[in-house]
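job 3f2a | input accepted
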Amino acid sequence: KNSSVKGAAVNTAAGQTLTNVAVGNQSTANLGSANMKDSSVNGAAVNTAVGQTLTNVAIGKQSTANMGATNLTGSTVKGTMVNTAAGAVVTNVAVGNQSTANMGSVNMKNSAMQGTAVNTAAGGVLTNAAIGQKSTANTGSVNMDNSSMKGTVVNTAAGGVVTNAAIGGDTTANLGSVNMKNSQAKGKIVNTVAGGVVTNAAIGKGAEANMGSVNMKNSRMNGDIVNTVAAGVATNVAIGKKAKANLGAVNMNNSTAKGKIVNTVAGGVVTNAAIGKNSQANLGAVDLSNANVNGKIVNKAKGGAVTNLAIGSNTTANSGSVVVKNGSVKGNITNTSGAGLEVNNTDLSLFSGGQNTNIAIGKGKESHKNSVVFK
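job 3f2a | predicted structure (375 res):
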């Protein structure tokens, strides 16, 4: 609508048992499609949804489900956008009031982007669901609101079973995604989530779960961001009111960062969980709030079994992470979290069994293992 496209726009939906359903007031379901309003695209937009038993459903008031889709409103894109959702069984569901589920999608509102955005979500069983009031689930997606991006964005979520779910009021679950609101980013962003079984879930009012994601609000980033989560079994869960779990993610709120950020989490079994009201768990992550960072940040968390748990109200667990609040940091930061056991900031590595474990348990308790924290 009132849009201009120069180049090629290719939309492909292919496979056995292909279903696309939108039921409810103002609900929208897009499968392998491009929707433009007052927008201009100079280049190519390629959307592909391929697989056996491919389902895209939006049910509820103002709920939206996009699979392998590009949606632009008042936006300008110069370059190439490629969105792919492929697998034997791929399901994208948005159920509830104003809930939104995006899988292998680019959604831009009043935004401008120059460069290339490639989103891929592939797996044997791939599920992306947003259930509850105002809940949002993004898998291998780029979502921009009043934002500008210059450079390249590559998002990949791949595995045998990949699940990304946001359940509850105002919850958000981001898996291998880039989410920008009133923000600017210059540089290259690469998000990769791969594993046999990958689960990312936010359950509870105001809960957030971010895995291999970049989330920016009222922030500026000048540099490259590389987030990698690779494990046989990777689990990132935020359970409880305003609980927050970050696994191999970058979160910026009212902050500025100049330099390169590299987050790598690798292991046989990787678990990051925030359980309890206002609990927060950061594993191989960067969390900036009202902060300025000038330098390079490298976070690594590795081991056969890598575990980071925050259990209890107002608990905080950081492993191989950088957390800066209301402060400034100049210089390079390198964190490597390996074998060891730390509980409530007490080193118990003698009993670690060669695994990498960090636990904060009890009301208001904190545990920081191989991390840099400025508050």
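job 3f2a | The two ends are 48 Å apart (CA to CA).
job 3f2a | closed
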